[in-house]
Design brief:
By secondary structure, the chain is mainly β. About 10% of the residues lie in helices and about 30% in strands. It has two domains: about 55 residues; about 210 residues, no CATH class. The longest helix is centred in the first third of the chain and has 29 residues.
């Protein structure tokens, strides 16, 4: 059909094709120029330029956060009683049959902050620097305990009534962490242990060279802010989560009345 057009029409088509080709070249030319634009300047203006962003992440440290005080309350009933530690003072403790009921109380927080970036894993351990608990008392670290702090359970002193389970852990609020996985092999000979913990762990030791392993995280796990808890933290510091690490104390029915204290030296060290 185009062969039959008059000469002026052919000229118009040729002109339109030239304009289209020129516009396409201009668009392509702008795209290429944008991709290879020079760096932006604060003194020279440019139609296009590039900005380079730089981020430096500096390694932090490995640390431990824990409730500074633990509280148990037991009213003597003649029976051996076991109770889980509270992180807040207990009050109005009374005997209810063979048990003890107290008011108040709160979950004790236990948290590891691994900001080292090393991915070497870590171990939480303890030893007692002072033990004034009644003779025959047993102190356990466990993954299960009483949901109501200040409420005891009756059980022989040799039988912890709470299940021996590995404490679970979650990421703290606003921490894109890698949760801890229990290590399959543990070696902290300078601290006094070379095997991984079996729950319930009897808390003891008498010196820094005779510590007890409470939890060991495998390499490449436990990175970030780790709460020994379940559920979801609603605020930093494991707030709103359900604790998964319990300090269970067994007191004999023959214990003499009075107040006593125990001092627990907690530590977190690199490597499972």
């Amino acid at each position: 059909m185009s062969r039959n057009l008059p000469t002026p029409s052919r000229r118009l088509l040729a002109l339109a094709a030239a304009i289209t080709a020129s516009a396409t070249a201009a668009v392509l030319g702008f795209s290429v120029a944008g991709a290879s634009a020079a760096a932006c300047s604060t003194s020279t203006g440019a139609a296009s330029c590039t900005v380079t962003g730089n981020l430096t992440v500096t390694a932090g440290t490995l640390g431990l956060e824990a409730a500074p005080n633990l509280y148990w309350g037991v009213v003597s009933t003649g029976y051996d009683q076991w109770a889980s530690a509270s992180g807040a003072s207990l009050s109005a403790c009374t005997a209810v049959g063979s048990l003890t009921h107290c008011t108040g109380g709160a979950a004790p927080v236990l948290q590891v902050l691994d900001a080292s970036g090393a991915g070497a894993g870590w171990a939480v351990s303890e030893y007692l620097t002072a033990n004034g608990l009644p003779a025959g008392s047993v102190l356990h670290f466990n993954g299960a305990g009483g949901a109501t702090y200040g409420y005891s359970q009756v059980s022989p002193i040799a039988t912890d009534p709470f299940a021996g389970t590995t404490p679970g852990n979650i990421c703290d609020y606003a921490s894109g962490c890698t949760v801890a996985t229990p290590a399959g092999a543990c070696s902290h000979v300078p601290l006094g242990f070379s095997t991984c913990p079996t729950y319930a762990v009897t808390m003891g030791g008498t010196s820094a060279a005779n510590q007890v392993d409470l939890y060991s995280a495998a390499a490449a796990s436990g990175l970030g802010a780790i709460c020994f808890a379940s559920g979801t933290a609603s605020a930093a510091g494991c707030s709103g989560a359900t604790p998964a690490a319990f300090y269970n104390l067994g007191v004999k029915g023959s214990a003499a009345p009075g107040s006593s204290t125990v001092t627990v030296n907690m530590a977190v060290t690199s490597g499972p």
